[in-house]
């Protein structure tokens, strides 16, 4: 798999360059003012989930989001910890809330006490759910995965795919998006992690180079399909239903996460292709679509891994959460971190970000929106009218 890594990355870089060039203005006329947003509607997985699984049982453990959780009003930033919360704050929009909550933790299982009936919240428009895939209904944490020996299924996560999330919103919103909606889509992470499990299992089993090449081709095909399916959903279920401003956030580089820290550099380079295979269809499809803005979180994650100090990161390899006390970031809080101060750690567990990591992600999105004139420069953003003002400083150039 590693043999083609540079070619694929070069293709991504070329696509990003084309996309950025297409966003540039021309002539001497002053650009029109950025649009005014009245609502943010979000689809995706755990990286965008603001509390789908914060049942009473999970909250009692100090958890609820996939990060180092802090729901104490005295210490929690007004902008929130998740990147969608932070983006909403920059736009002076209401804090996002989960459109559907609950857990289907199996009775008799070790997490049965966390179960809570599924409930819909029609005034909330963050549909992202931890474990969700693009179109497949049973992602990591779903009880159905217990049948194939995945004990994460004891959580009973809903994992409704992005396709179902969009259908849910259209049913609530009368079949279309409103003119003032800012729609965010960040998905495919769990599709990549499912394929990562196949790859790492083969590596641990001592698969030959030929067998890994065959498996690599299968994995790239599967993730290219997932990316293509996501493109189709955005075109047919967002744009065709009236969405005028859609921010698509590319999948960050899985190859720089703690999940693959034990692999060799060559093997980690192969893992990096997982996100590339999924991202390329999105870049190619929306390079010339004025209603869609692509935020390149993939390149940003690579730059952060290469020069962490430039981004204020002090630890990029160790999860902030003690995973012997909190099995995933969903259950992580200040009581279960590996050190008293993890404020500048990058990852909360093997793949999820810390609050500071989410702030870096939010900056990628706001900078991309600002360059495209979808958002005012930080000095004149709507959040300046709020008591605590704007919270996101510019990323290093």
Which class of secondary structure composition applies to the elements?
alpha/beta
CATH class category label? Alpha Beta
The CA-CA distance between the termini, in Å, is: 32 Å
Helical content (DSSP H or I, runs of 4+): 25-40%
Count the E strands: 6
The CATH topology corresponds to Rossmann fold
Overall pLDDT score: 92
Shape assignment: globular
Cα-atom radius of gyration? 20 Å
Number of domains: 1
Q: Sheet with the most strands?
A: 4 strands, parallel
Q: Could you characterize the architecture of this molecule?
A:
The protein has 397 residues and is an alpha/beta fold. It has one domain (2-12, 37-305, 353-373): SGNH hydrolase (Rossmann fold), CATH 3.40.50.1110. The protein has nine helices and six strands; from the N terminus they run H-E-H-H-E-E-H-E-H-H-E-H-E-H-H. The chain has helices at residues 5-23, 56-60, 83-90, 162-172, 189-204, 209-238, 265-286, 297-306, 355-371, and strands at 39-44, 100-103, 116-120, 181-186, 246-249, 292-295. It has a four-stranded parallel β-sheet with strand order 1-4-5-6, sandwiched between helices. Strands 2-3 form a two-stranded antiparallel ribbon. Helix 1 runs parallel beside helix 7 (265-286) and helix 5 runs antiparallel to helix 7. Residues 17-27 have low confidence and may be disordered.
How are the SSEs ordered, and which strands pair?
Blueprint: H1 5-23, E1 39-44, H2 56-60, H3 83-90, E2 100-103, E3 116-120, H4 162-172, E4 181-186, H5 189-204, H6 209-238, E5 246-249, H7 265-286, E6 292-295, H8 297-306, H9 355-371
Parallel strand pairs: 1-4, 4-5, 5-6
Antiparallel strand pairs: 2-3
Helix pairs in contact: 1-7, 3-9, 4-6, 5-6, 5-7, 6-7
């Amino acid at each position: 798999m590693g043999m083609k890594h540079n070619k694929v990355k070069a293709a991504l870089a070329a696509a990003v360059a084309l996309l950025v060039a297409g966003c540039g203005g021309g002539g001497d006329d002053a650009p029109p003012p950025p649009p005014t947003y009245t609502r943010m509607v979000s689809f995706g997985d755990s990286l965008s989930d603001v509390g789908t699984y914060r049942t009473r049982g999970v909250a009692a453990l100090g958890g609820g989001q996939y990060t180092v959780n802090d729901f104490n009003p005295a210490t929690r930033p007004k902008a929130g910890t998740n990147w969608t919360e932070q983006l909403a704050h920059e736009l002076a929009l209401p804090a996002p809330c989960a459109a559907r909550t609950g857990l289907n933790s199996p009775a008799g299982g070790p997490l049965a006490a966390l179960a809570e009936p599924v409930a819909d919240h029609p005034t909330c428009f963050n549909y992202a759910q931890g474990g969700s895939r693009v179109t497949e209904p049973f992602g990591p944490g779903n009880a159905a995965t217990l049948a194939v020996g995945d004990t994460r299924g004891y959580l009973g996560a809903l994992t409704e795919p992005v396709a179902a999330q969009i259908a849910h919103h259209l049913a609530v919103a009368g079949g279309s998006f409103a003119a003032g909606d800012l729609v965010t889509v960040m998905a495919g992470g769990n599709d990549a992690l499912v394929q990562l499990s196949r790859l790492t299992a083969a590596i641990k089993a001592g698969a030959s180079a030929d067998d890994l090449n065959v498996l690599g081709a299968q994995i790239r095909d599967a993730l290219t399909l997932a990316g293509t399916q996501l493109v189709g959903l955005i075109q047919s279920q967002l744009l065709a239903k009236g969405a005028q401003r859609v921010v698509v956030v590319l999948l960050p580089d899985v190859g720089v996460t703690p999940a693959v820290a034990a692999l060799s550099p060559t093997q980690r380079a192969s893992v990096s292709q997982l996100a590339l295979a999924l991202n390329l269809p999105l870049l190619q499809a929306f390079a010339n679509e004025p209603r869609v803005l692509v935020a390149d979180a993939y390149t940003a994650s690579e730059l952060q891994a290469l020069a962490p100090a430039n981004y204020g990161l002090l630890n990029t390899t160790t999860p902030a959460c003690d995973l012997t006390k909190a099995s995933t970031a969903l259950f992580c809080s200040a009581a279960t971190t590996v050190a008293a101060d993890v404020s500048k750690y990058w990852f909360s567990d093997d793949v999820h970000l810390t609050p500071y990591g989410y702030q870096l992600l939010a900056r990628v999105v706001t900078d991309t929106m600002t360059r495209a004139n979808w958002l005012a420069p930080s000095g004149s953003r709507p959040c300046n009218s709020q008591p605590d003002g704007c919270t996101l400083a510019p990323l290093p150039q």
